[in-house]
Amino acid sequence: MAATQIDFYEILGVSRDADGATIKSAYRKLAMKHHPDRNPGDAEAENQFKICNAAYEVLKDPQKRAAYDRYGHEAFTQNAQGGGGHPGADFSDLGDIFETIFGGGFGGGGGRSRPRRGADLRYDLQVNLEDAFHGKDTAIEVEVSVACDTCSGSGAEPGTGTRTCNLCHGHGKVRAQQGFFVVERPCHNCHGRGEVLEEPCHDCRGEGRVDKEQRLEVTIPPGVDNGTRIRLSGKGEAGPAGAPPGDLYIFVHVKPHTVFQRDGTNLFTRVPVSFTTAALGGCVEIPGLDGETAKIDIPAGIQSGKQLAKRGAGMPVLQGRGRGDLIVEIGVETPTRLSGKQKELLREFQETETGDECPESRGFFERLKEAFN
After folding, report:
1. So which cofactors does this thing need (predicted)?
2. Which amino acids are annotated as binding site for Zn(2+), given as ranges?
3. Binding site listing
4. CATH for 256-336, among 2.60.260.20, 3.40.50.10420, 2.60.40.1120, 3.40.1050.10?
5. Looking at the whole model, is its pTM more than 0.70?
6. Which of 20, 209, 226, 349 is the most buried (most CB within 10 A)?
């Protein structure tokens, strides 16, 4: 049976919703049945023992089991491990187990190993809030490994080629005895390719890639926020020996703004108003990032800390429609410099106060009096 047709749950004889105790019990029974010590010289029993071990290695671990349930055997392929993989999963410890049993990894078909794609790269890009609002095209410079021009990424000196590896004889793998088991691993001489260079390229020393400064154009879409990730496919590290390159991920960081604070698609700002405007009402005008002026009506009698919203005057929705809101927090400012005339008018006002003008203050002092009487 091909490796891609073997189901780990069927191997252990359990259902897909079996708990950990059931899986462990089933594995112990099968391991005891097929153990090489109980079946000396029985190659089939030894192979079944290895397969049971591989199945249990995955299903006993919640993280690996979840990846297997979702992706099947593809969760453990060489491409999944070396090319970005599945989020949060680390299956590097399973490679030797699967290669030992199936001779080359799930879905790979055995034989020589294929060169892995190049590594993914990260670049941190800072933009201001205006750029995050409007979006922009910008250029970045990244030092990255690219395919060697001299050898076209092959790693071989021009005019030369490759020859069969004299250690693995072209198989790409070597075997070693470890206790009861024969372990098959990628050949360290040819790195699993089965071939070695006749003469390494003088520029890249056989790597097939060289470090080079690259200038790349990046499109920043409107509405980006801290942590927004932009993927440039094929702009990562070049793969060895002509393998495909990885990807470049741009992580956006939005600089703090002097006026606005951001929360998702909403913008916040604090606006001080005079105590007369707070008492009588009025209007404030706030220039927006879009170039338009947002007019905020101040209702009479507003208190400090009150928030007013201007719908649709916030940040654009990333890759969507519409905008968030502009939230204005009012701060009532007490005057610190008064003319003689202003002081006189305030005293006249004070003489006419009855306490009903500020019900919150009056209520507080009444509660205070009751508490201590």
Report:
1. Zn(2+)
2. 148, 151, 165, 168, 187, 190, 201, 204
3. 148, 151, 165, 168, 187, 190, 201, 204
4. 2.60.260.20
5. no
6. 209
